[in-house]
Amino acid sequence: MSDSKKMSSAEDGGGALMRTLDTVLGQAEKLVALRIDRLRRQYPDADDAVLLKKLERTFLSSVTSSGAAIGATATVPGVGTAASVAAAAGDASFFLTAAATHVLSVARLRGLDIDNFEHQKALVMMVLLGGSSSSIVTKVAERTGLHWGKLAADAVPLPAIRSANKILGPYFVTRYGTQRGILVLGRAAPMGFGAAIGGSGNYLLAKSIIKATATTIDASLAERNSEESH
Fold it and tell me: Which are the contacts of 214, defined by CB distance < 8 A and separation ≥ 6?
């Protein structure tokens, strides 16, 4: 394949992933309010720390069981590799929806309501790239002049967020696409290995997202509180 065709293929794949992210965010936004309201009704006496742990457990259990189930299709007689890969690709969309829902749910639970789509997109990509302290996000902040701690408070002007999203996008495509690509191929492995890779792979990714969500929201709250005190 020529270099130009390789580049075109990469761009097509990246565009597909970004379109998936846009769709996922629309779905996640609908789930967030329902999830937080339901938790508060079910556990009226629980504080936010307890509810946060419940959000984390829900995220971990849902994506881990999904990954294991998809991986297990590789062991079913008559299910070919192409079908296994297609099923795993569908699981990647589910994982992304679950991840976005978790990030935005934690933000809302902790008092950071983000209603603007571009701000939501920037926050989710930032978390999936490792959080506000990651080297990638630092590079983007240096290029755009953004203070990422203000992001979750909708304090950054929309044009600046759109500019940042254009820079974050290629990093997101490269990192997330590569991670998920490895897991997709792993789940197509025969003799039960697919189930193990699917479940453990999703679990490890989910744990890293939970950690990045916490550090990013902490940074946002700290900066917001610091500004309000002045």
Answer: 106
Compute the distance between CA of residue 37 and CA of residue 18 in angstroms, rounded to an integer.
29
Of 11-15, 80-84, 131-135, the range with the highest mean pLDDT is 131-135
Distance CA 88, CA 187 (A): 7
Residue 16, pLDDT > 60, answer yes
The tens digit of pLDDT for each residue in 117-159 reads: 998 999 999 898 888 778 888 888 888 877 776 655 556 778 8
Q: What is the DSSP string of 5-66?
A: HHHHHHHHHHHHHHHHHHHHHHHHHHHHHHHHHHHHHH-TT--HHHHHHHHHHHHHHHHHHH
Range of the domain at 179: 3-228
- Rounded to the nearest 10 degrees, what angle do helices 158-187 and 117-128 cross at? 50
Residue type, 46: A
Instruction: Return the CA Rg of the chain.
Output: 19
Read off the pLDDT of each residue in 47-64 and give the average, rounded to a whole number: 90
Domains in the chain, number: 1
Give residue 221's pLDDT: 81
Could you write out the DSSP letters of every residue in 113-150? ----HHHHHHHHHHHHTT-TTSHHHHHHHHHHT--GGG
Structure letter (DSSP) for residue 153 = G
Q: What is the pLDDT of residue 1?
A: 42
